[in-house]
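testing teh design pipeline on a random one, pls ignore if ur not involved
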């Protein structure tokens, strides 16, 4: 996919010029990754029961909400679901809101009481670093 055509699909709600920078950084998937057998997903491990979360991106043009919901339902596992009114790259278009959702969800995970967010919007970087703190 050419960077210009990637913007509406992956970065449609990301402000310019960041959307162009992100689109320009995309690399093609490796054929080996697509042809290799996939290992068993970690989310299927019973150790994660009750500690699985998914943030649905309501305005995602790459993975429509119906596809996201179908995937979650198809796992047959209970997930903590939150939604964000953002496109595919909520980490870039709504980074603070995404970080807040992650921090809220982390409270559900046994043994982890809170997260701290450190704004790292330095040149060339996007988003917020999150650090887990164990009780």
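output:
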């Amino acid at each position: 996919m050419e960077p210009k055509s990637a913007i509406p699909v992956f970065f449609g709600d990301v402000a310019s010029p960041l959307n162009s920078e992100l689109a320009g950084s995309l690399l093609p998937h490796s054929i080996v990754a697509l042809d290799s057998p996939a290992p068993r997903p970690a989310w299927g491990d019973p150790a994660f029961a009750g500690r699985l979360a998914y943030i649905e991106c309501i305005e995602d043009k790459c993975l429509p909400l119906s596809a996201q919901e179908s995937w979650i339902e198809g796992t047959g596992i209970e997930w903590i679901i939150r939604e964000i009114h953002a496109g595919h790259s909520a980490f870039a278009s709504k980074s603070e809101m995404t970080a807040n959702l992650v921090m809220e969800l982390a409270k559900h995970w046994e043994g982890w009481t809170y997260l701290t967010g450190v704004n790292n919007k330095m040149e060339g970087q996007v988003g917020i670093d999150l650090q887990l703190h164990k009780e």
